Amino acid sequence: MLAELSFDDFKDHRGGTFVVEGTGGRVEATLVAARLSPYASPGLLRRHPFAILFTAPAASDLGPQVYNIRHPEKGLMEGVFINPVVPAAADIAQAKDIRFYEAVFN
Question: Its domain of life (predicted)?
Protein backbone atom coordinates (compact mmCIF):
# COMPACT_ATOMS: atom_id res chain seq x y z
CA MET A 1 0.00 0.00 0.00
CA LEU A 2 2.80 2.46 0.84
CA ALA A 3 4.17 2.34 -2.71
CA GLU A 4 0.70 3.09 -4.06
CA LEU A 5 0.14 6.27 -2.03
CA SER A 6 0.14 9.47 -4.05
CA PHE A 7 -0.37 13.20 -3.66
CA ASP A 8 -4.01 12.66 -4.65
CA ASP A 9 -4.53 10.52 -1.53
CA PHE A 10 -3.82 13.54 0.69
CA LYS A 11 -4.54 16.76 -1.24
CA ASP A 12 -8.25 16.86 -0.32
CA HIS A 13 -7.67 16.01 3.35
CA ARG A 14 -5.88 19.19 4.43
CA GLY A 15 -7.22 20.17 7.83
CA GLY A 16 -8.24 16.58 8.50
CA THR A 17 -7.24 14.52 11.51
CA PHE A 18 -4.96 11.52 11.14
CA VAL A 19 -3.88 9.19 13.94
CA VAL A 20 -0.16 8.48 14.01
CA GLU A 21 0.64 5.19 15.74
CA GLY A 22 4.06 4.07 16.89
CA THR A 23 5.84 2.22 19.64
CA GLY A 24 5.22 5.13 22.02
CA GLY A 25 1.46 5.21 21.50
CA ARG A 26 -0.99 7.20 19.39
CA VAL A 27 -1.06 10.89 18.51
CA GLU A 28 -3.79 12.80 16.70
CA ALA A 29 -2.22 14.97 14.02
CA THR A 30 -3.68 17.50 11.59
CA LEU A 31 -2.65 17.46 7.94
CA VAL A 32 -1.69 21.07 7.18
CA ALA A 33 -0.07 20.68 3.76
CA ALA A 34 0.40 18.28 0.89
CA ARG A 35 2.77 19.43 -1.83
CA LEU A 36 4.24 18.00 -4.99
CA SER A 37 7.99 18.03 -5.46
CA PRO A 38 9.23 20.38 -8.17
CA TYR A 39 12.02 17.88 -8.94
CA ALA A 40 10.12 15.01 -10.55
CA SER A 41 11.32 13.27 -13.70
CA PRO A 42 8.20 12.44 -15.75
CA GLY A 43 8.20 8.89 -17.03
CA LEU A 44 11.07 7.78 -14.80
CA LEU A 45 9.16 7.39 -11.55
CA ARG A 46 6.12 5.37 -10.58
CA ARG A 47 4.65 8.39 -8.84
CA HIS A 48 5.33 12.08 -8.62
CA PRO A 49 7.32 12.70 -5.39
CA PHE A 50 5.41 14.60 -2.73
CA ALA A 51 5.49 15.52 0.93
CA ILE A 52 2.86 15.89 3.63
CA LEU A 53 3.12 18.10 6.70
CA PHE A 54 1.33 17.43 9.98
CA THR A 55 0.95 19.36 13.19
CA ALA A 56 0.41 17.74 16.56
CA PRO A 57 0.12 18.99 20.14
CA ALA A 58 3.37 20.26 21.67
CA ALA A 59 3.22 17.39 24.19
CA SER A 60 3.65 14.89 21.36
CA ASP A 61 7.16 13.65 20.80
CA LEU A 62 7.31 11.71 17.57
CA GLY A 63 10.93 10.93 16.84
CA PRO A 64 12.20 10.19 13.35
CA GLN A 65 10.99 6.66 12.65
CA VAL A 66 8.42 4.55 10.83
CA TYR A 67 4.80 4.94 11.92
CA ASN A 68 1.39 3.70 10.89
CA ILE A 69 -1.14 6.38 9.99
CA ARG A 70 -4.92 6.00 10.20
CA HIS A 71 -7.59 8.13 8.59
CA PRO A 72 -11.37 7.57 8.72
CA GLU A 73 -11.68 7.56 4.91
CA LYS A 74 -8.23 6.45 3.76
CA GLY A 75 -7.88 3.64 6.31
CA LEU A 76 -4.55 2.30 7.55
CA MET A 77 -1.31 3.38 5.89
CA GLU A 78 1.54 1.26 7.21
CA GLY A 79 5.24 1.98 7.29
CA VAL A 80 5.38 5.76 6.79
CA PHE A 81 8.64 7.43 7.84
CA ILE A 82 7.85 10.63 9.73
CA ASN A 83 10.40 13.17 10.81
CA PRO A 84 10.04 16.20 13.09
CA VAL A 85 10.77 19.43 11.20
CA VAL A 86 11.33 23.08 12.03
CA PRO A 87 8.28 25.18 11.11
CA ALA A 88 8.41 27.72 8.32
CA ALA A 89 9.02 31.31 9.38
CA ALA A 90 5.35 32.14 8.82
CA ASP A 91 4.36 29.43 11.32
CA ILE A 92 6.84 30.26 14.10
CA ALA A 93 4.29 32.24 16.13
CA GLN A 94 2.02 29.21 16.58
CA ALA A 95 4.89 26.74 16.98
CA LYS A 96 5.02 27.13 20.77
CA ASP A 97 1.80 25.14 21.07
CA ILE A 98 2.35 22.56 18.32
CA ARG A 99 5.02 20.45 16.67
CA PHE A 100 5.52 19.93 12.96
CA TYR A 101 6.14 16.55 11.31
CA GLU A 102 6.80 15.66 7.68
CA ALA A 103 6.65 12.53 5.56
CA VAL A 104 8.30 12.50 2.14
CA PHE A 105 7.29 10.05 -0.60
CA ASN A 106 9.75 9.54 -3.46
Answer: Bacteria
